[in-house]
Amino acid sequence: MTDNLKPAAGRSIGALLIDSGRLTPEAAERILKLQKEQGLRFGDAAIQLGLLSDADIQQALSRQYDYPYLMPGDDRISEEVVAAFKPFSPVVEQLRALRSQLMLRWFDAESGRKALAVVSPDNGEGRSFTAANLAVVFSQLGERTLLVDADLRQPRQHQLFRLANKVGLSSVLAGRAELAEAIIRISGLRDLSVLPAGAVPPNPQELLSRPVFTALLATLQAQYDIVIIDTPPAGRTADAQAITARAHGALVVARKDITALPALQAMVTSLQQGGGNVVGSLLNNG
């Protein structure tokens, strides 16, 4: 337990838990009494009395220290967005390590490097999963983060974040909607917004190749610290190459025993020939 640290926010764990409905004032009094009698920390006293779980305490701590995440069972977001529910799990620790490397090797506000495309050769390699969870861990760092679903063929991010998909990137690129009405702020996760793909258009590659997409990315990078872009499979269409050329940087995702090495090498060569920088790679084991 770490709830004996001096909190960044001024509110106590008990007050936060009462406000969230996880604890009654009467139960809080029982905890405080045992805490005083036995010299325990609030969380340890609550768990000893069986009034709270360790997950409850961790959730309150996350709010105290501005590191928000959701409790299991919160159906606002799919549980595939594991960083939103289990920030201390091994997979999320790996994502945080990746985040650190990307902050050191790519993202640089002074150089204007704020966008990163997440690419893979084919479906089923964890591209959308990685983009969604990477966006969450950047937002938990306090970076104003936007996740853009630029897969205008088989979009997934509106499903992962359980958003309406009537208005999105395709609407903005086609001049059918304003950017402000297409971006959705994610409730419960500070500093995270999503621009869903919108309705699947008949001409996705043409939309992504237009100057308006380049201008849109420039606008987004002026408004956000981090812009993570999900893409279609690079081995099936040229969309990912067009996106990476405009974002300038790409994170390559592959899956063990699924991704073929020749396809991966061909994709990397294509991205580089198109003017994109391959910033790093991620191998999914599962």
Description:
- There is one protein chain.
- The protein has helices spanning 13-19, 25-38, 42-48, 54-64, 90-105, 127-140, 157-160, 169-173, 179-182, 204-209, 211-223, 239-247, 261-273, and strands at residues 115-119, 145-149, 184-185, 192-195, 226-230, 249-255, 277-284.
- The chain is an alpha/beta fold.
- It has 2 domains: 13-64; 82-284, P-loop containing nucleotide triphosphate hydrolases (Rossmann fold, 3-Layer(aba) Sandwich), CATH 3.40.50.
- Helix 1 (13-19) packs across helix 4 (54-64) and helix 2 (25-38) packs across helix 3 (42-48).
Q: Quick one: CATH superfamily of the largest domain?
A: P-loop containing nucleotide triphosphate hydrolases
CATH class identity of the largest domain: Alpha Beta
Q: Give a quick account of the main beta sheet: strands, pairing sense, barrel closure.
A: 7 strands, mixed
- Which overall shape is indicated by the principal axes computed on the Cα atoms? elongated
Number of helical segments with 4 or more residues: 13
> Could you give the count of β-strands?
7
User: How many domains is the backbone divided into?
Assistant: 2
Mean pLDDT: 88
Low-pLDDT runs of 5+ residues are 1-9
Compute the separation of the termini in Å: 31 Å
Could you tell me the CATH topology label of the largest domain. Answer: Rossmann fold
What structural class is derived from the secondary structure elements?
Answer: alpha/beta
Helix content: 40-55%
Radius of gyration: 21 Å
Query: What pattern of helices and strands is seen along the backbone?
Result: HHHHHEHEHHHEEHHEHEHE
Strand order, main sheet: write it out. Answer: 3-4-2-5-1-6-7
Q: What is the second-level CATH architecture of the largest domain?
A: 3-Layer(aba) Sandwich
Proportion of residues in extended strands: 5-15%
